[in-house]
Amino acid sequence: MTIAEAAPAKLNLALHVTGQRADGYHLLDSLVVFAAAGDLVRLDPGPLSLRIDGQFGAGLSVEENLCLDAARLAGAEAAITLTKNLPVASGIGGGSADAAAVLRGLARRGTPLPDRPERLGADVPVCVVSEPRRMRGVGEVLDPVPALPDLHLVLINPGVGISTPQIFKALDRKDNPPLPPLPDSFDLGALVDYLQLCRNDLQAPAVALCPQIGDVLTALQDEGALLARMSGSGATCFGIFPDAATAGLAAYRIGTGPVDWWITATGLAAPPAPF
Known about the structure:
This protein has 275 residues and is α+β, with helices and mostly antiparallel strands. The protein folds into two domains: 3-143, 2-Layer Sandwich (Ribosomal Protein S5, domain 2), CATH 3.30.230.10; 152-266, Alpha-Beta Plaits (2-Layer Sandwich). It has helices at 66-74, 94-108, 124-129, 164-169, 188-196, 203-209, 211-222, 244-255, and strands at residues 3-20, 26-44, 49-53, 79-83, 133-137, 141-143, 152-157, 227-230, 237-241, 262-266. The strands form two sheets. Strands 1, 2, 3, 4, 5 and 6 form a six-stranded mixed beta sheet that branches. It is globular.
């Protein structure tokens, strides 16, 4: 049977780097949500293969792709089609979300989820869940979070590639404090207030290496974002706006300026159906 599985964009509303293991892996503490914008994965019967289309499909390798790695880790065969709507290597978990969508789709066909999906990447376990979570360790520790309000978001990527290892190498310190204690409940104002107490520890080194990220953050702030922050190791940034109309207008106004950026207004993704 054919399975179609959404691969929503992962957003780190906050990302604290709290340590580094002896093997070099960094320890994280992050509040993660998923946007309605995302890629799409389709699984058809057949031997293992991958076809890629979509706006950003040309930037991906068919031979070396996490979708194929995910199927191999699960020990399953499928003809995979990836529709790549998200920018590549952009800090919103595109490759990890795609791999997680393959794992969910295979699970719907009866293939159990493999042990330790973090072997595919630190973001893969949370992307399998694709619901708001506090993510810790190297991505393998996932804790539920209080119910979040619907978020009206503008996502912007300036179209500049970012090297994640280079960003981590540029960190001044790697033993930062974890997230503050989470409250029992959130409305929009309380969430923004909480996030103001948090950070993305990778943002400052990313801006130093890629000044366009600073331009994106300024554009979001100038349009009235309640909070503007980079996601992951960049270069995608998000702005939280009071309502959908304000977010849509901000995306339009920024998009009509003298920039060639990927820009979309979106909300939060619905949780995936049980699998």
